[in-house]
Every structure is written in C-alpha cells, then in structure tokens.
C-alpha cells in the first residue's frame, strides 16, 4: 500500500509540474517550500551535502538553487561526471600540496 501511495503521489506531482511553468532557479524560501523542508534544514543540507556550482550558486549576495540538480539529488541521480571532476581537481591539489 505504501508503494502504491508513493507512486500515486509521484504521479500527482509529475502532472502538477508538467502542467505549470516551473522556475529553474529557487531562493532558499522557495526551495524549502518545494521540498517541504524548513529554511534551517535547507541551510544545513547546503552546508553538508550540496556542492557549490552544482546544486547552488551565489549571485550578487543571494543563493540560488538549481531545481534540476536538486531534483536529481532527491531521486539519487547526481551528475557523477561533475562530482568526479571536482574530486579529481581536489585530489590533484592535495597531492601537489603534499609535494611542497
């Protein structure tokens, strides 16, 4: 029953999203409403999980969240190429620091 309820809810959400114009860029309040989280929870996830320039961007003092990347995060479908690229850069940076 739980799986059927979840599937029905997903279908309702899918229809709702496809029937209206949805914004790609969300501020913290909009993202909290979109995900059903508190703003404090969004800030905590931003600090602990989200990756800057993938899930969110800082623009003129504001934080804008990419709804497409957040949707991928929600369903567990991250953009692994970008994450792997960032890890590669960090690994190279750390190895060059170790050589100094």
Task: Please provide a written account of the structure.
- This protein is mainly alpha-helical and 100 residues long.
- It is 64% helix and 11% strand.
- It contains five helices and three strands; from the N terminus they run H-E-H-H-E-E-H-H.
- It has helices at residues 2-19, 28-35, 39-48, 67-74, 80-99, and strands at 25-26, 56-59, 62-66.
- Strands 1-3-2 form a three-stranded antiparallel β-sheet.
- Strand 2 (56-59) and strand 3 (62-66) form a beta hairpin.
- The longest helix is centred in the last third of the chain and has 20 residues, at 80-99.
- The chain is elongated.
Cα end-to-end separation: 60 Å
Quaternary organisation of the protein chains: single chain
Helical content stands at: 55-70%
Q: What percentage of amino acids are in beta strands?
A: 5-15%
